[in-house]
Amino acid sequence: MPSLNTSLRELQAILVKQHNKLNQALDDVTDAGTARTIVREMQEITHRITLVGQLLFARQTAALREKVDAVKQATGKVAKAIQTLANVQALLDATTDLLTLVDDAIDLAKTLA
Amino acid sequence: MACKVREHHIVGLLAAALLLGVACASGPPPASLASWRDAVIATQAQSDVALRGVNQLAREAELERAAQRANLSESDFEPALDAESLAVWHGTFDDLAAYAQTLAKLVDPATSAGIGPSLTKLSETMAAQASVEAFQRYPGLASAIGKLGSAIAAAAARAEAAQIMRETDADVTALLDAMSKLIGDQEGGEEIGVLAVVRAAWTDRANEKRIQFLSAPNADAKLRIAREYAELLDKRSAADRVLRDLKRSLESLAASHTAAAQGNPSDLSSLIAMLGEQTRLAQSLVDDLRRPKP
């Protein structure tokens, strides 16, 4: 049994084909009344092409949500890598501060010795 | 003597390591990722205008259909693309833009630049008390260590970016391909999707002129109507092109992500310039739809 997406795709294709056929049929029409009838029929088909299109768009955009999760996870990984760089810099700065403090303490100890 | 030899070794090794660090910096160059981010943002702008135009056109078509009906109902005025789906579409672009922005930030030299001065400062602090002869003999040694640190950090950042892009490439490509197929796809030999909606609506608009033409009283009236018909066909072509361009942009984004992930970044500057032009074309079509019909 075809999925709803497949059925909607096929349905829209059928409507598009019918719309095209009527449009071609207009080429041979020379009477305004007949042309009007065909064009009104085409408008009805267009309305349904739009409705099916809306359903298709809604279902397929909902499926985008699942696909975009991998992108979100990758963004998290990249952000973590940026944080790692910041942590390395913070570690270096903290080590420098620690060494400066230790050096001051050693200098002070030397004067007291 | 042995000490001097070691000092020379230290300096030589640092210089070699610096060169090696820069030479081994694999992964996408910063400019290419910034360019990919700009292309994502430009495609998002292009799609905003193009999809707004689709809803505007569908509304016009619904009004024309409603004018022929005996009564009105809510179901006569459904949007072609509903608000919730559009929010998901825009949200997907936001997530892609955030991904691109974060990648660009990771490989931006400014992100890892802070490591160099920190390492220089640490080296100087260590040298001040450790009385290492090499630091006294070569005053620039601490600075060289800092530069090496920066170069290694930048190379590591680019390698990490490349690794993440390789891991994510199949998903990014599948996502952009799905978005492209939403705009237009083939089914049973017919074009379906948003493109089909737009084509049918413009064809109906143009066909009103074909009806008028059949009851035109003279050649002058026929000429005027024929001209209006031709203009509407041109607009249909322009609207069609806007959506096909959007499809192409999505496909280009996927291809350039794959290329960058494989270490072959493509130049996107022409695509970004073209996107700006296409967005203006799409906007002019939307503006045109808002103007009252002659």
Describe what is shown at a glance.
The complex is a heterodimer of chains A (113) and B (294). By secondary structure, chain A is mainly alpha-helical.
Report on this model:
The complex is a heterodimer of chains A (113) and B (294). Chain A has 113 residues and is an all-alpha fold. Chain A is 91% helix and 0% strand. Chain A is built from two helices and no strands. Chain A is rod-shaped, with a radius of gyration of 35 Å. The mean pLDDT of chain A is 89. Chain B has 294 residues and is mainly alpha-helical. In chain B, a hairpin with a 2-residue loop joins strand 1 and strand 2. Chain B is elongated. At the A-B interface, helix 1 and helix 2 of A face helix 2, helix 3, helix 5, helix 7 and strand 2 of B.
Notable features of this structure?
heterodimer; A: 113 residues; mainly alpha; 2 helices; rod-shaped; B: 294 residues; two-stranded antiparallel ribbon; 10 helices; 2% strand
Straight-line distance between termini of chain B: 96 Å
Hey, roughly how much beta strand do the residues of chain A contain? under 5%
Number of DSSP-assigned strands of chain B: 2
Shape label of chain B: elongated
The most extensive contact between chains is: A-B, 63 and 77 residues
Rg calc of chain A: 35 Å
Mean pLDDT value of chain A = 89
Shape of chain A: rod-shaped
Largest sheet of chain B: 2 strands, antiparallel
Number of domain units of chain A:
1
- Alpha-beta classification of chain B: mainly alpha
Structural class of chain A: mainly alpha
The SSE order of chain A reads: HH
List the helices and strands and how they pair.
The complex is a heterodimer of chains A (113) and B (294).
Chain A: H1 4-25, H2 32-112
Helix pairs in contact in A: 1-2
Chain B: H1 2-23, H2 30-66, H3 83-107, H4 109-113, H5 115-130, H6 133-137, H7 141-183, E1 185-187, E2 190-192, H8 194-214, H9 219-261, H10 269-290
Antiparallel strand pairs in B: 1-2
